[in-house]
Design goal:
By secondary structure, this protein is α+β, with helices and mostly antiparallel strands. The protein has one domain (about 10-110): Thrombin, subunit H (Beta Barrel). Helix content is about 20%, strand content about 35%. It has helices at about 110-120, 130-140, and strands spanning about 30-35, 45, 50-55, 60-65, 70-75, 85-90, 95-100, 105-110. The strands form two sheets. A four-stranded antiparallel beta sheet has the order 1-2-3-4, with no helix packed on it. Strands 5-6-7-8 form a four-stranded antiparallel beta sheet. Helix 1 runs antiparallel to helix 2 (about 130-140). The longest helix has 15 residues, at about 130-140.
């Protein structure tokens, strides 16, 4: 059964188009970057420019879950159920933040990664060539 509203790949799969509906609203001019959902159906959405992470419960109620001093982008949960957020610090340095009951913590920045890389080079665990290749990859992420 072919459905003209779906791509041909779905011809053999009986699907119905579900009408859209307003589930939740965020403040005007919010630049929503990413979304993830936890095990109980709560949505977490990042607002890139202002560093806010919104929590939207299954009934559509929204509140500010956390705020980082910088920008927020990607979201994921770790094995402990804490929220991991990729983004940038207020100084524009790429970073990964952890949002837990205790608050927001910066886990790693590009600068941290470069220091660690240099330490590996100084200890002879990577070659000068490997160091330079990885250093360039890290720098390309912030340019």
């Amino acid at each position: 059964m072919s459905n003209p509203q779906l791509p041909p790949i779905f011809d053999q799969i009986p699907k119905a188009i579900v009408p859209d509906f307003l589930f939740a609203e965020v403040p005007v001019n919010t630049f929503l970057e990413n979304i993830t959902v936890n095990a109980i159906g709560t949505l977490f959405v990042t607002s890139y420019e202002d560093g806010v992470i919104y929590e939207i419960n299954p009934t559509g109620q929204r509140h500010e879950f956390a705020r980082v001093d910088g920008k927020t982008a990607g979201l994921a949960f770790d094995q402990e159920g804490d929220l991991l957020v990729s983004g940038a610090t207020a100084q524009g340095i790429s970073a990964v933040f952890k949002v837990a009951q205790s608050g927001v913590e910066t886990l790693v920045t590009i600068a941290d990664a470069m220091r660690h890389l240099d330490q590996l080079r100084q200890e002879g665990l990577i070659t000068e060539y490997e160091f330079e290749q990885k250093r360039r990859q890290l720098l390309d992420r912030i340019h």
